[in-house]
Every structure is written in C-alpha cells, then in structure tokens.
Amino acid sequence: MKRFTIILATIIAITAAVACTGGAKKKSYNIKGSGATDGAVVLLIDMLAEEQCNADMADADGNFSFVGEADANALLSVNYGSEDDELMFFNDGTPIELDIKEGTILKGSDLNLKLGQYEKSIHEMSGKISKKIEQYRAIEPSVEKERIRESIQIDIDSLLTYYKSILYNNLDNLLPAAFSRIYYSYMQGDDELEEELSKDHKFFKHPYAAKIKEEWENVFAQRKAAEEAKQEIIGQQFKELSNCSDPNGKPCKLSDFVGKGKWVLVDFWASWCGPCMGEMPNVKKAYQKYSGKGFNIVGVSFDDNKEAWKKAISSQGLNWVNISDLKGWQAEASSVYGVNSIPDNILVDPDGKVVARGLRGSDLQNKLAEIFD
To answer: Which top CATH class is 26-169?
Structure first.
C-alpha cells in the first residue's frame, strides 16, 4: 500500500533469512505471497527494528515465500516495488497468504485479515490521491487547477477520517499500532484524536506503537520549545532583513516598509507551499478590508526560483509589497526570525514593534478588527 512515509534499509542482493531482533518470545512465521513481478526482490521487514528479516525473489508466476521466526506479535511488513509499497501484518503464529498486487491479506488470523482489508482500502484511496496530484502538477495555474487542488484536499480529509475510524473501531486490540506513525505524523491538531491518543489503550502496549509515541513526544517537545522561542520577539523592535530584492530585481530592506507609520503584517510564505496558498485568501481578505486604514503587508518569500515566485504573485493577486533573497530555506529570514515552517508571520505596529506572531485564519481577522474597528 502507499504510505505517507516509511523508514527502511534497502538491499540489492538476496540474503539468507535471519531472526528478527528482540528479546521477546519468538513465534514462527510462514508467509506465502503472490502478485509480484517476475524476478522482483521482495523483503520482509521488522518495523520496530527497521531491519530486514528475510528476502525472496519472485518466480515466473509472481510467487514468493518466507519462513523463519520473529518476536511474537511483531509488526512485520512485506516490501516490494518502490520504498513506499508495503503490506503489514502481526506475527501471531498463524500462516499468512497475501497478494501484493491487490494490496491485501487473503488468509491469516482474524486480526490480520481485518488489517488487510483496511490496507486495501487505504491503498485504493491513496492511489486516487496520487493520480490527482499528478494531474495538478501537470497543468498551469487555472480554475481547473484550483478545482483539482480542492478535490485533493477533500480526498486527503476523507483518508484521514478513515484512519480515525480504524482507531475508534479497534481500541480493544493491537491493530491501530500498525498506523501509529500516521496518527502522530499527519493528524496533529485534531482534538478528538489527541484525546484518544492520550489514553491507555491496548495498542499502546505494542512495542512499535510505544516507540512511535516516544519519538513524537520528543518531536512535540522540541517544537514547543521552538515556538516559545519564536514568541520571544513579541514586544521587541522588528529585525532587519537587508539582502532582499523586489520582483523586478530592485534591492530593498525590510526597514524600507516597516516602522514607517503603518501597521504591517510581515508574511513568510513560498509559491511551493500548499498551506501558504491555502491561507492566502484569508490574508487577501485582511488586506482588502484594512489597507485603506493604515495596514500594509510585506510578503517575504522563501522561494529560490524567481519565475515561480513572480508567477504566484501574479496568479494569486498578491497586490502588496513582495520581497525575497531567493535562497529558499537558507533565506536570511530563516535565521533572523527563526522561521522553520511556513506559513508564518509577525504583526508590527507603526513604530516598528512586534505585537503578535503566527496569526492565521480568524486570529488574524480578530486581531486586525481589535486594532482598526
């Protein structure tokens, strides 16, 4: 199935089977597979250890097999094709038959059969999204391109809702452990989900789920510290960006536009940033409503392609000041303002003092209403 992300070690040659690492009780596995390409190398991966347990080469009919042992209930995956293709299951001692072409488990324990059906559905849903993304990338900015973008977002929301349903329908068993990385990596900010993830459900006792949980708790702690550091600029004078140019190539500095008697939103964005484009209608709404009342915007782009930057300004109708040093993530703004993700922004008062940061959606509208209305 197509997953959002996977970490695994790839190999070129077939190696002998080895026992998957771990100190837990072992169980034998007997896996028969079909649907591979003739001669393709198929790997058996222990997802906790992120190491190869076994490998086989598919025969002329696309069949392959694995025999060996691994930790009891270890989360294993058969990997094939590209690095993003895998089919997961738990090593519970029941022989397994699977079809990697269809992306599902044909025979196995009730738990693995259930997991296989979920994986097949996810494979189909994510495949549909991938095709739309290819369409989106292939056409120029247009009404049709925007329609495809909106359709992709709807499909992604549906897929994440499906992942949530898997969790809610299996709180009494180990199955959600297989999707732990998805829950932490891609579904942050969902209050309902985060409440469930904070509880002591059975699947958290699985070593793989416990590992992912610990990894992301560390990530969250680091992000929280970084966000707190970002907020330290509030109450201080804005910091200069001195190596920028406008879209016509004219050199300029941030101080050319900030601290000159107007409220200014310094908006950090990039043409390639999907969330930035999603936030632009809200930013445009603010500009249209308050630009006549002493409000201005300075867009500081993290682009490194001048033509893509200029095209986005034109196609999106960003009719305010736009500057960039065209250095991508090496931009001066990254180090000066600690910008490590976009969209981001700071709101600067007429005297050049920063009064807020990270205003998005209704927060931006409410803050400007507080100032101007």
So the answer is: mainly beta
